[in-house]
Amino acid sequence: MPNPPGHSAATACHICGHLDVEPLEQKGKPFRLVSSDVQPVPGTAEFSICPRCLTVQKTITPTWQAMADRIYASYDINHQSQGAEPTIFDSAKGSGPRSLILLRNFLDMVDLAREGRLLDFGCSNGNLLKSFHGLRPDWKLSGAELFDQWKDTVLALPGVEAFYSGANAAYAEKFDVISLSHVLEHIPDPISFLKEISGHLTPRGRILLAMPNLRQNPSDLIIADHCSHFDENSLSYVTHAAGLHTELFSTEMLPKELVAVLSVGGPSAGPPLAAGDGGKASRERCLFYFKLLDEVREAAKSCREEGQPLGIMGSSIAALWTMMELDSKVDFFVDEDRNRVGHQLLSLPIVDPSRVPEGALVFIPMSVVVAERIIQRWKGHAIDFRYVPTNRPG
């Protein structure tokens, strides 16, 4: 919607258009930023919250858009594992590639025909398409991306019939399933986007959404090209405003993620509702997340000052951010994912927990729940794990 005189796009919510979003002030040194493909990004971000749709968001400026465009033009998905996607451990559907766990849950909840068509929007190198083909080999698959650097890779996958690129691709078919895995948080106008993409569904088609859950994963705030940071309330607002029926909504299906299954039609969910407190609770929660991230940063610095070899648990967003906040004064990364062990992240080795050098510290920049599970899995090894005991987002 156009902005009235005296208001700019930077002061209006990019989700619902509400004017005068409330700035969220991060006290202390601004956090460094990491791209969603786990690369350092120069600069800092400005945050705000909308009192209508309750979305925590980064301010969309020409500078932010140019930064996001640079990231996507050279996107290097899962480079720490030569393109293999992250492994999820100990879920209700077992351990395995993230997309496989997501799709197993989806197929348990939704009765799909033996044959059909699926479009994976934001397909990157095709990991979700590979997983879906293994579960539904008779389906015809398509991938879509902003750029075509993965076109040949995706088209070579079994079951794939088409690849689309560009922001306004002309799709040749209607689809029974459109998957949007880690897509919506990148898009400055997600309501319009969902309205448009849902027009490419068959009459009984479904959209499968998955994205970071801010309430379980405050590290989402430091991802430079994520302009929206969703929780249950803000995502529900977006899907309702897009006129879509929610068949399933879960905060438990994947660790630290929101998952939803949407369709066109069905019982009306009614208009999206504003928070009765004007977003006060959401605002206070986000300021608490800023405080948590600062505590993680300071605890990591304290570990560094002990003078022992220092490893960071993980090899993704939180791990790289911690290393950056320590001015790269880290000796190695530690990961349980066998696809990443033996590779490097920013020229530092990624080692298995069983290979942590004697006398080293391993700092876990994740929540207490995640840290305690990691420590439990490796209790038979003499590893000096450290974590922040107050790191309990919710």
From TrEMBL:
SUPFAM superfamilies: S-adenosyl-L-methionine-dependent methyltransferases. It comes from the Bacteria. PANTHER family: METHYLTRANSFERASE TYPE 11, TRANS-ACONITATE 2-METHYLTRANSFERASE-RELATED. This is Methyltransferase. It comes from Reyranella soli.
